Every structure is written in C-alpha cells, then in structure tokens.
Amino acid sequence: MSSSLSAAADPAVEQQSSSSSSPPPICHLMSLPEELLSHVDSHLSVEDSFNFKLSNARIDNALSHNFHYYDQMHLSDEPEDCRIVDTRGRAPTRSFKADNAPIMLRMLPNLKDVTVIIKDVNMRGRHPQFPARTISDCTPYTPGGYLMLLLGEMPPEQMALRQLSLHIDIMVETLEDVFLQCPTEDLKYAMEKLSNARFNSFVQISICCAQIRPTDQNARNYLLQGMQYALKQSEDFGAKTEFVVEPCEGYVDMTVEKGNVEYTFAFFYYNPTICDPTPEEAPPTIPLITNYYI
C-alpha cells in the first residue's frame, strides 16, 4: 500500500481487479465480520490503515473510529521512532512516515501530547533560506523552523493538545566548518503563534562542537552576539529571559519564557571528562568565554 496519505484507492488493487477474472482480494475481505476487519487493521501502519479504509465503503465504516483513541505522537528523524500511541491501551501502537505528521495532526481528534526529537541535524549542504517540504530537509534555520513545517497556519485553538515538545540536536566538528547563528526561527514562530495557546510548548535546541580550536573565537562571538540579540528582542515582546555562561565548562545557554511557551538554546563543547569520565583523565582546557565581545 502507499506510504502517503492520499485520497485515492490503491492502484495495485484496481489493476488486479481489471486484469483477472477471479474476485479481487477486497471481495474476500468484504465477507469478514467487522471484528476481523479491525483485527487486520490493527497490524497496519497509519498509511496502510488509511488506504485500507479508502478501499471500500464498508471497511471505511467498520474502521471509522480507528484513529480516535490515539492521544500521543512521537516524531523523529529516525523512522523506527515515529509512532502514535493510545496511552490507555485501547488501540495498538502504530508506526507512520515522518513526512505525514502534519496531516496526522489534523486527523487525530483526541491527540494530547506531541513529542518531536531530531537527533542529528547535518547542516552541510542545506539551504536554510528555503522552506522545507520534509522533516529531513528542515533545520532550525529554515523559515518558521520545525514548528512551521509541523503546524503550518493551523490556528492553535483548533488543536486539543496539552503539550508540544520539540528537541533538536546539532553536532558540528568545528565552528570553522559551519558558521552558525543563534537559531531563532522556532522561537519566533512559538512567540507569535503559540504563547497564548491553550497547551504548553517546549522548544530545546542544542549545538555541540566536537573540537576546540583557538580560531573559534570569531565564530563563537558571532553565535553569542546572536543569542544576546534574540534575548533583547524577546524582552521587547514581554518575555522573561535568562542567559547563563559557564566558561570553565565550555557551556552557554539562554531561556525565553512567554505565556505557555518555553524556549531554550544551548551551545557547548564536547567534554569527554563529563560525558565519559575516567580516573586518569585530566580536565581539558576549554577556552570558551574568557574573551568575547558584544
């Protein structure tokens, strides 16, 4: 069956029915009681279930409420982690294609919690100034960010959510490789669209730099200036802000809170003595914010 949520029946079924004198498989399914149709459907992905319903009016009627029980969505850039869940155990957990998430937000009437985890954003070869059509094309610098891709122009009042969480990790070897700005696209979308929503929104973005080089200073200062500029703009819009600098740990973060939105962005150097300490290791020198210019 198709991996996209379309409004057409499976062409493979139509071709088989026209090219063979024997009854197509759908005719055999038609003789099944509704309980068995539900059992068959319970083993299908979201996309296959959707197309299964479209294949016949009786099947569509029998499965008319098969998506009503789901109240959690987990979206990731790793396909095996994309699923919808009924936390009360009334319906089986189903997998889905990440790029269908925007459509699913509109077809799951009782969805309460959405968690988005982007574990590995590769900035090389991306064109952040262009809108993204898929999750894999999106970055925190794409216009509107991940929130725009997921929610679009859907009014928040049309969503029955309790919580929306977005977690994004960016890993770079050196700051010389990718000259990064402070990511503010998801922040701007959240401040403009979601701060007065009836549900809570949490956005967490982090940039981890694997190598420390003395030549990082200009790129690092550029990133820090962007953070302070974003905080100043957020304050002008009435948000509560916080800026934390830990020079010895090679860590900086900022927090913005307004209404039901909380946004955090952190930049740090990978520190093996923290992530995987061993007794014989001595703490490395991390020249992060001993000198920076605003």
Give a short summary of the structure.
The chain is built from 10 helices and 9 strands. With 294 residues, the chain is of the alpha/beta class. This is F-box domain-containing protein.
Topology:
Elements: H1 11-19, H2 25-30, H3 34-41, H4 46-54, H5 57-62, E1 72-76, E2 83-85, E3 94-95, H6 101-107, E4 113-121, H7 145-151, E5 163-172, H8 185-194, E6 200-209, H9 217-236, E7 240-246, E8 251-258, E9 261-269, H10 272-275
Helix pairs in contact: 7-8
Written account of the structure:
The protein has helices spanning 11-19, 25-30, 34-41, 46-54, 57-62, 101-107, 145-151, 185-194, 217-236, 272-275, and strands spanning 72-76, 83-85, 94-95, 113-121, 163-172, 200-209, 240-246, 251-258, 261-269. The chain is of the alpha/beta class and 294 residues long. The protein has a 9-stranded mixed beta sheet with strand order 3-2-1-4-5-6-9-8-7, covered by helices on one side. Helix 7 (145-151) crosses helix 8 (185-194). The model is unreliable at 7-20 and 279-288 (pLDDT under 50).
Number of separate helices = 10
What is the percent of helical residues? 25-40%
Secondary-structure element sequence?
HHHHHEEEHEHEHEHEEEH
Which strands sit side by side, in order, in the main sheet? 3-2-1-4-5-6-9-8-7
Main features:
294 residues, F-box_dom, alpha/beta, F-box domain-containing protein
